[in-house]
Design brief:
Layout (H helix, E strand, L loop, with lengths): L5 E7 L8 E7 L7 E11 L1 H7 L16 E9 L11 E5 L8 E5 L3 E3 L13 H14 L7 E4 L5 H12 L3 E6 L2 H10 L3 E4 L8 H4 L5 E6 L5 H8 E9 L13 H6 L2 E4 L7 H14 L1 H5 L7 E6 L3 H10 L5 E5 L3
Parallel strand pairs: 8-9, 8-11, 9-10, 11-12, 12-13, 14-15
Antiparallel strand pairs: 1-2, 3-4, 3-6, 3-15, 4-5, 5-7
Amino acid sequence: MTAPASTHCIEITAPGNPDALQMTTRALPSPGDQQVIIQVCAAGVNRPDIFQRQGLYPAPQGETDIPGLEVSGTIVATGAAVTKWQRGDQVCALLPGGGYSRYALAHQHLCLPVPKGVPLLNAAGLPEVLFTVWFNLVEKGQLRSGNVVLIHGGSSGIGTTAIQVARAFGATVYATAGSDSKCRICENLGAAKAFNYNSEDFTDIKALTGGHGADIIIDMVGGDYIQKNIKAAAHRGRIISLAFLKGSRIDVDLMPMMLKQLVLTGSALRSQPVTEKSRIAAELLNNLWPLIETGQIKPVIDCVMPLENAAQAHRLMESSKHVGKILLDCRQ
């Protein structure tokens, strides 16, 4: 089992709609000292891939323009300084790009072993959401047992994972989703109540918590949710923005933020240095991998499509009809 000189992959032919995603063949670089080459089993589809395809989120300087931020697969080659892995090891990995491919490069410290009990293909849905949830919910949100947590987009890949992580840490979880059926899925994953944002007001969380509100709010929506988040937050609550699907520009009354002593913050995982992401990888292995292996946290997979159907996968994600992760099967 060795790495080939080239690989079939998906490239973005020009910024635009999903039809810009086309299958092509690219040369496969030799791994750097700290890198491994993974024969990809599956790649996860994520919102940043959509933004990159639209021309709104370019790859970091010096990284491949092939989309795809997470994969699972088998290591087929290692760089000169790689000590953690050897050929034949099965891993899932966080990437700066390049996941929509039969073969992909990954940094050795951003690879994690496939958890026991999780199929190799399903493991492709773990890295991006777990890195994101740990960094934002656990660390920036200061998640503690007894916290009240509100997760917007509860039926998304990040949302379904965040619900499970928060419950595993002893929090009371609330979520929002776009239909009654999606709300029930959120509740089955551990949410005490999920609000259908088309018919319910999530600021009712104040009444449901005896006036306390949410200690932590994970927001991927933005727009008019920003003011509502401030209203829904508890005293000294933490509001963490991960995306702005409804826009990042809005008139906001910040007086309640001051009076409640709130923290409004956000982050972008892709731009974090390898040293920081390596630190998070170690935290995941120590703290979340045991919960995955005992079944307390499970990857929620909506569907698996062939790699050549990447455009269809993007259309599904943009429709928001999916629940959990969309994966691309990259096996030949």
